[in-house]
């Protein structure tokens, strides 16, 4: 299977994206923002549809829209109600607005139904060299951002009230992290499509956290599982001719199920 | 007057929504030892503690803790909020303590033996060693309180602001925590400002009581 260039590109793309998905996903689950991961990839879909309409690369549209959506979601203040319910409302509203825009973009881009299918379900076997380079650049940028935010992000994710009392700029940290998550969702959508992008981010991370591991161990397990799922999905897709997102989605659910049985 | 060991309020007005908690209060009280902030439910004790940390803005006036404004003073304060944390319950207790160490600094918290030993020392101090490696969500209310107290003690604070640290604890656990607080004030010179309804457990250990009532603060 590695004699074909498209398969080599697909494996390389999955490797890059899995490192990013496992790491960002771990923080998303820790912060109870699984819904954000789901929404960001859908928001990215709207951006990609807009890019198709304008005749530019869907990846750039996806990144631009996800980034704007992420910043809107991350702009949180602690007012009335709990932070998590406020987050959910904000995410839901941003998602609804962007999906409306996405529908309009697709309507304007005549005859784009095949493109819409590609955006929704991904085209990992169609990753070309420029896309690989773009994925690599996004991953380096995100990992550098996480390295910078790491300590306050972890503190604010574990104990937001105490972190704020100790002088952690919680709002700035949240904004920075959501921008990173938006970029990561766009990258994941390139591999598994907008509909299932979050499965690569959420499945491995949720499994790692269910195991009750410390942060470093949990992050390592999340990245390893993301690699296992994406590589395994590619290999199984090669053998069975069933789409990669199917194997990734099913594998993510199976991993979490096993973790639940191990850690009852 | 801004004395290094005082909590001083100068014409402070503090509100929570439409409720006035402090109405133009001017007061200076020493902070050494244990100061109990008393008041009825809903009187604004937690909001006042948050104002001391700079988390809630004053409507007017100046508040200083040990001679410093809250935004500066908060760097040397250990804070334990009211209620049990329900975030990141799957992470081991010791990781919660380690995450608080120099937690406001940018960069990656690299694994280090010194950090781990320091976290273990604080957990031992609060009697939480035996469950340090268990996920927070598997701990009882009292056990979580001990972990939170260990977290508040990270980075060697000069002052502790504790919001209902004795809540959710049985009688024996309350006395253990009170004994620990007494040790912290006597041996380490840490000043404690705390709220609590369990005044019996604090008998003889409190240096002064601040009563929050009808928009006033009385010693």
From TrEMBL, chain A:
<feature type="transmembrane region" description="Helical">
    <location>
        <begin position="6"/>
        <end position="30"/>
    </location>
</feature>
<feature type="transmembrane region" description="Helical">
    <location>
        <begin position="175"/>
        <end position="203"/>
    </location>
</feature>
<comment type="similarity">
    <text>Belongs to the ABC-3 integral membrane protein family.</text>
</comment>
<keyword id="KW-0813">Transport</keyword>
<dbReference type="Pfam" id="PF00950">
    <property type="entry name" value="ABC-3"/>
</dbReference>
<dbReference type="InterPro" id="IPR001626">
    <property type="entry name" value="ABC_TroCD"/>
</dbReference>
<keyword id="KW-1133">Transmembrane helix</keyword>
<feature type="transmembrane region" description="Helical">
    <location>
        <begin position="89"/>
        <end position="106"/>
    </location>
</feature>
<feature type="transmembrane region" description="Helical">
    <location>
        <begin position="215"/>
        <end position="238"/>
    </location>
</feature>
<keyword id="KW-0812">Transmembrane</keyword>
<feature type="transmembrane region" description="Helical">
    <location>
        <begin position="132"/>
        <end position="155"/>
    </location>
</feature>
<keyword id="KW-0472">Membrane</keyword>
<protein>
    <submittedName>
        <fullName>Metal ABC transporter permease</fullName>
    </submittedName>
</protein>
<feature type="transmembrane region" description="Helical">
    <location>
        <begin position="244"/>
        <end position="262"/>
    </location>
</feature>
<dbReference type="InterPro" id="IPR037294">
    <property type="entry name" value="ABC_BtuC-like"/>
</dbReference>
<feature type="transmembrane region" description="Helical">
    <location>
        <begin position="42"/>
        <end position="69"/>
    </location>
</feature>
From TrEMBL, chain B:
<keyword id="KW-0547">Nucleotide-binding</keyword>
<dbReference type="Pfam" id="PF00005">
    <property type="entry name" value="ABC_tran"/>
</dbReference>
<comment type="similarity">
    <text>Belongs to the ABC transporter superfamily.</text>
</comment>
<keyword id="KW-0862">Zinc</keyword>
<keyword id="KW-0406">Ion transport</keyword>
<dbReference type="InterPro" id="IPR027417">
    <property type="entry name" value="P-loop_NTPase"/>
</dbReference>
<keyword id="KW-0813">Transport</keyword>
<dbReference type="GO" id="GO:0005524">
    <property type="term" value="F:ATP binding"/>
</dbReference>
<dbReference type="InterPro" id="IPR017871">
    <property type="entry name" value="ABC_transporter-like_CS"/>
</dbReference>
<dbReference type="InterPro" id="IPR003439">
    <property type="entry name" value="ABC_transporter-like_ATP-bd"/>
</dbReference>
<keyword id="KW-0067">ATP-binding</keyword>
<keyword id="KW-0864">Zinc transport</keyword>
<dbReference type="InterPro" id="IPR050153">
    <property type="entry name" value="Metal_Ion_Import_ABC"/>
</dbReference>
<feature type="domain" description="ABC transporter">
    <location>
        <begin position="7"/>
        <end position="219"/>
    </location>
</feature>
<protein>
    <submittedName>
        <fullName>Metal ABC transport system ATP-binding protein</fullName>
    </submittedName>
</protein>
<dbReference type="InterPro" id="IPR003593">
    <property type="entry name" value="AAA+_ATPase"/>
</dbReference>
């Amino acid at each position: 299977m590695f004699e074909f260039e498209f398969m080599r590109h697909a494996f390389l793309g999955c490797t890059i994206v899995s490192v990013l998905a496992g790491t960002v996903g771990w923080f998303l689950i820790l912060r109870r923002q699984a819904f954000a991961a789901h929404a960001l990839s859908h928001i990215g879909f709207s951006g990609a549809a807009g890019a198709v309409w304008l005749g530019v690369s869907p990846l750039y549209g996806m990144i631009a829209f996800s980034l704007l959506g992420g910043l809107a979601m991350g702009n949180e203040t602690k007012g009335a109600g709990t932070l998590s319910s406020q987050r959910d409302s904000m995410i839901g509203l941003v998602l609804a607005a962007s999906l409306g825009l996405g529908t309009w973009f697709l309507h304007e881009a005549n005859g784009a139904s095949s493109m819409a299918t590609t955006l929704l379900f991904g085209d990992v076997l169609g990753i070309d060299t420029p896309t690989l380079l773009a994925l690599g650049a996004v991953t380096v940028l995100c990992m550098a951002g996480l390295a910078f935010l790491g300590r306050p992000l972890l503190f604010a994710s574990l104990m937001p009230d105490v972190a704020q009392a100790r002088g952690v700029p919680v709002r700035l940290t949240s904004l920075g992290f959501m921008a990173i998550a938006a970029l990561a969702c766009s990258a994941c959508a390139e591999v598994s499509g907008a509909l299932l992008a979050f499965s690569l981010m959420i499945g491995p991370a949720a499994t790692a956290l269910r195991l009750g591991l410390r942060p470093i161990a949990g992050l390592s397990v999340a990245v390893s599982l993301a690699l296992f799922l994406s590589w395994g999905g590619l290999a199984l897709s090669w053998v069975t001719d069933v789409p990669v997102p199917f194997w990734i989605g099913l594998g993510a659910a199976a991993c979490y199920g096993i973790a639940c049985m191990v850690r009852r | 007057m801004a004395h290094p060991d005082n909590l001083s309020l100068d014409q402070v007005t503090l509100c929570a929504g439409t409720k006035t908690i402090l109405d133009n209060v001017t007061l200076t009280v020493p902070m050494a030892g244990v100061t109990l902030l008393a008041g009825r439910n809903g009187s604004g004790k937690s909001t006042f503690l948050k104002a001391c940390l700079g988390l809630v803005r004053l409507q007017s006036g100046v508040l200083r803790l040990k001679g410093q404004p809250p935004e500066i003073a908060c760097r040397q304060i250990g804070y334990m909020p009211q209620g049990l944390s329900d975030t990141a319950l799957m992470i081991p207790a010791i990781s919660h303590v380690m995450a608080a160490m120099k937690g406001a600094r940018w960069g990656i918290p690299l694994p280090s033996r010194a950090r781990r030993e320091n976290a273990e020392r604080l957990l031992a101090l609060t009697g939480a060693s035996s469950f340090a490696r268990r996920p927070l969500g598997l701990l009882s209310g009292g056990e979580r309180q001990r972990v939170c107290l260990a977290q508040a003690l990270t980075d060697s604070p000069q002052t502790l602001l504790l919001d209902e640290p004795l809540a959710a604890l049985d009688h024996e656990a309350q006395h253990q925590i009170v004994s620990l607080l007494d040790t912290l004030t006597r041996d380490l010179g840490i000043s404690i400002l705390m709220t609590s309804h369990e005044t019996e457990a604090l008998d003889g250990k409190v240096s002064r009581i601040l009563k929050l009532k009808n928009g006033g603060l009385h010693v």
